[in-house]
Amino acid sequence: MVRIIEVDLGRLGLRFPRSEVGMVIAQPYVKFSNVEPFPLLPKFRDGALAGIDATLAIALNTDHGAEKTHFTVFPECTLPGLEGFDRINAAMTADSWPAGTVVIGGFEGLTPAQFTELVGRPGTTYDHDGNSLTRLHEDHWVNCCVTWAKVGAGDVRSWIQPKIEPAGVELNVPNERMFKGRSIFRFRGTYADTHAPYQFATLICFDWIGVRDERRIWEWLLRDIEQAASVNQAQLPLTWLFVAQCNPEPSHTSFMAQVQPFFSAVDFPGVLREDTCLVMANVAGNAVPGGAAQYGRSAVIFATGKFQKAESLPTFCGGGPIQRPGNPLENYRDAVFRERGACIHSFRQLNPGALPAGAAGKRFALADAAVHPFPGTNDPRAPARLVPAAVKWVNDELDDPQKSLAVKFPTWPLAGAVGIAHQRSVDVLRWLPSPALSRAILIASPGTKACADEWEKKQGNAVKHVLNTFSILDVAQYPTQFHALGPHASIFRGDIGIEVVAVSGRSHEECNEHIASQALVHRGQLLVVSRDEENTSWNPRFGRFLDQGAEKKSEVNITDPRSAVIQIGFQDFLRAYQEAANEAALRGAIDAAIS
Asked: Is there a single domain that holds both residue 342 and residue 417?
């Protein structure tokens, strides 16, 4: 069985506000040695310590707007051993660190000697009965987490909890074996200014799905809470369950399949879970902000229907098939942080039990959810503030080197120049504000919905088309000014400005109809570079509304048939680029096409 050890934080003076709490979750990038006990690689250790300092500084700053950061979480396997423990302990002991706060952290793999030393640190509590060190042998290594609390008197206490069940990768080891814990700490207390109880606990990654003696590990926890409630013939809540992960597949069926039974009121009815906050804190899949095929997807999950479902909010979304392929958690309020690269999440988590009934209580689960950078990072996806969905999505697409003509056609004469031009466009587009980026995608891709969480390959191809178009114009020595406020950008021929739109659709006809429907207001000439699925040349017969011979106006509208509009198929641009021996030759070809 799994022992559950109750810790009464209320007696120690630790009380949380009932309405909301401040949270900070570190999402660092980690790499380990491939030899037990799987410590962090030496080159990552200094960065891990700097990451601790950065995360704790963000927790102190309380940019999320709560009175303090009540919970700070470091995922599984991220804290560098005894140095990491001492770093956090010292920070929390300082006068500047507020009382009434908790820090939860998962440690790199520890040797028996290191773990024994950790257990002996002053102020620590360890289950010597269930996890006796006499069971810890030389061929063991330990995966554990620590929960620190700065209590009402200002003292810092900590509780050390070994992982209970090893994951597959921890079983399939050549030399040593993971020490299996036998207990979980369950922390309880009452909210400030009330007698209403709160409770929380932490599981380490695989413990969320692991089984001990024919019960899931979380079932042992709920069973214990129900037994405690039955003493007074009452019900007790589980307010927070933290799952500290180093999980390459956070949306895997095995993990998501446990959400429904965990929240189900059929079993363990004495444990109130409608308002439970399930916190999935994972490591990053990239050393910097960006897309990743693995890891990331830290999330906060609720069963309650009191919260509104997040659609396209800054920083986080409501899950769905893209974030949870095959496991969308449709019946739950799934707040998934979009950023899968290294970053630090900061937010206020609202308690649904404190919200009024009806429309007045309709809120989102999280408020002021910001993404902060680790030291040395300068990226619009981690700006220490909210990150709109369009900013995250477009920047991830801009990371793709395959969108560069220099990568696709490296032997063409101007490949070097177009590679530099591509990067110039990427650097400018990265930092455009969210409305401009969103508008740029909506103009470039016919039939696109405004919700960036629904953008996929089609919109990614539109980004490639925009980058390719302006890379060629750049190499042709047309200075470009991106703005995406209507047309994508302005280019300049001497003192004369020409506004440019790049649009990618199934056909040139579809591109024509789409641009006409946008009613783009532009000054002077408008150049439309359209690309169909086969990348064919544009034929003027495709769209009679484009009048290339119209008299130039100081301000014209594309819906006006007299507008000065030029349309060129991207194939013609590409051919000019392919055949040009140098920048001057490309400039001449482009001049001829748009004059």
From this structure: no
Q: Which position has the token pair 């380490």? A: 204
Q: ∠ CA(548), CA(487), CA(591), 5° rounding?
A: 45
Spatial distance between the Cα atoms of 258 and 388, rounded to a whole number of angstroms: 30
Q: Are residues 289 and 438 in the same domain?
A: no
For residue 551, pLDDT over 80 is answered with: no
Q: Record the tokens describing residue 245, joined without a space.
A: 């992960």
Task: Identify whether residues 222 and 369 lie together within a single domain.
Answer: yes
- Tokens 């969210």 sit on residue: 434
Is residue 307 within 8 A of residue 315, CB to CB? The reply is: no
94-112: average pLDDT: 98
Tokens 């509208």 appear where?
557
Q: What pLDDT sits at residue 493?
A: 84
Q: Which amino acid is at 302?
A: F
Query: Does the structure show a pLDDT above 70 at 15?
Result: yes
- Rounded CA-CA distance 306/447 in Å is 33
Residue type, 115: F
pLDDT attached to residue 546? 41
Question: Do the Cβ atoms of 393 and 452 come closer than 8 Å?
Answer: yes
Q: Is 506 left (phi over 0), alpha (psi -120 to 50) or beta?
A: alpha
At 46 the three-state DSSP class reads helix
Tens-digit pLDDT profile for residues 300-332 = 999 998 999 988 899 999 998 989 998 889 889
Helix axes 570-579, 583-594, angle to 10 degrees: 150
The pTM of the full predicted model, rounded to 2 decimals, is 0.94
Q: Where are the beta strands (DSSP E) in 39-173?
A: 69-79, 101-107, 124-126, 140-141, 144-150, 156-162
Q: Could you report the per-residue pLDDT of 486-509, keeping only the tens digit for each?
A: 899 999 888 888 999 999 999 999
Question: Tokens at residue 102, please?
Answer: 């908790």
Q: Which amino acid, one-letter code, is at 108?
A: E
- Judgement on whether residues 122 and 222 belong to the same structural domain of the protein: yes
- In the structure encoding, which two tokens stand for residue 502, read together? 């790049």
Pairing of strands 197-204, 156-162: unpaired
Q: Identify the domain containing residue 263 by its residue range.
A: 3-387
Nearest of 198, 199, 205 to residue 161 by alpha carbon:
205
569 φ/ψ angles, rounded to the nearest 5 degrees: -75, 140
**What whole-number distance in Å separates Cα of residue 164 and Cα of residue 145?**
11
Q: Does 212 have pLDDT greater than 50? A: yes
Residues 402 and 380 placed together within one structural domain of the fold: no
Residues 243 and 318 in one domain: yes
